[in-house]
Amino acid sequence: MRKQKPKTILCPLCKGDGLSKQAKKLTDDFNNFRRSSYTIVGGKKDGPYKWSDKITDAEVKALVKEGRLRQFTHESTNGHYNFKLGIFPKAEVVNEAQRCGETEDGINFFHDDINERILVKFRAKRYGIPYECRKCHGAGEVEKLTNESFTKLMMNVG
Question: What is the superkingdom listed in this entry's lineage (predicted)?
């Protein structure tokens, strides 16, 4: 007989994103999702908590270590990137490219979701705050308690 996978529901603590409350705030601030803090700057919405264009050299190093920022560390030849030996971008250069939308060489640039995840994880670790939700451990969902699973849970507790 095949064992059925338990039914799950969205985690009530993190609302399905799998992040701790503090990591969610870092994520929201990275993209400036705190809508109440928006001001219009240069035709774009901006706010005081935004940090996607204020990363540090240590955060740049974390991105490069994960194989990111190839626009800065590699040369493009016929659509293929070749590593530029000794090139390691400074945070100021990456931050300016994020603000402008392109590198000094005119290559389009913006932090995607992968960069954001790496940076939020790095900053959470540096600040000593949890990255994953403590209830679902990053899964975004929890087992829906049925009468049977509730009974099993209570039997194991007592």
Answer: Bacteria
Alpha-carbon gap, residue 93 to 90, rounded angstroms: 5
Distance from C-alpha of 128 to C-alpha of 134, rounded to nearest angstrom = 14
| Domain carrying residue 80 | 13-139
d(CA 79, CA 70): 12
pLDDT tens for each residue of 110-149: 899 999 999 999 999 999 999 999 999 999 988 887 666 5
Spell out the long-range contacts of 73-80 with Cβ–Cβ below 8 A and sequence spacing 24 or more: 76/107
- Residue 155 placed within a domain: no
Question: Which helix (H) or strand (E) segment is 9 a member of?
Answer: strand 8-10
* CA 158 – CA 151 distance, rounded (Å): 11
Q: Is residue 151 part of a domain?
A: no
Euclidean distance between CA atoms 37 and 128, whole angstroms: 25
Q: How many domains does the chain have?
A: 1
